[in-house]
Amino acid sequence: MPENATPTFILNGPKSSRLVTNWPLFGMWPGILRNAHRIHDFATDVLEENGCTFIVKGPCFANLDMLLTCDPANINHILSKNFSNYPKGPDFKKIFEILGDGILNSESELWEFHRKTTMSLMHNAKFQNFLERTSWHTVEKVLVPVLERASELGLEVDLQELFQRFAFDATCILTLGYDPSSLAIDLPLKTFDDAEEAVLFRHILPKSCWKLQRWLQIGKEKKLSKAADCL
């Protein structure tokens, strides 16, 4: 039965690890916060130790238990074969409200509509030509000059941020016909970074906490509101 698939799968997953301790009241979050500076490497280590699937236990008062998996069979089961049995749920949409009702934040019929529309567009020959011209223009006229300037000045470059800005500008040009110019010599606009950071904190903080911050317009929620207005 689809309704029972998820809880059964979670209950049968590993719940302990020599790399992170499940403390009373606070769960595994002390160890996670201690490794926040290397969170991706830490998650990889934990998953490798536990057969690619692991249950993260959050504080008992925060409803932050999570299932981590990098097992291809699990991912295929959840995202392909039985996608309809694993809805994102209302909490996901609240956390990622900045995405609106786009394909990354939608479900069921709306998700299917977005998917069919996107696939139809991506297979259109005229759109493919436009995509190629736009991408090469952004590479030649913007990305390469930024890298050359950084090389001349001997500056360190965060390639993840650089290509994120490149993708953001290219996507805006393709979908909106507007170039936000976030990829420039002086790397203006921290809007996307602020939004990502705030969404990450929504995963960590109890819902009541970040909702209070949003109501008071303080902390990360204030930055997220400004980022949403800008975007």
Automatic annotation (TrEMBL):
Keywords: Iron, Metal-binding, Oxidoreductase. The keyword Repeat does not apply. GO terms for molecular function: heme binding; iron ion binding; monooxygenase activity; oxidoreductase activity, acting on paired donors, with incorporation or reduction of molecular oxygen. Its cofactor is heme. Belongs to the cytochrome P450 family. PANTHER family: CYTOCHROME P450 (PTHR24296). This is Cytochrome P450. It comes from Nyssa sinensis.
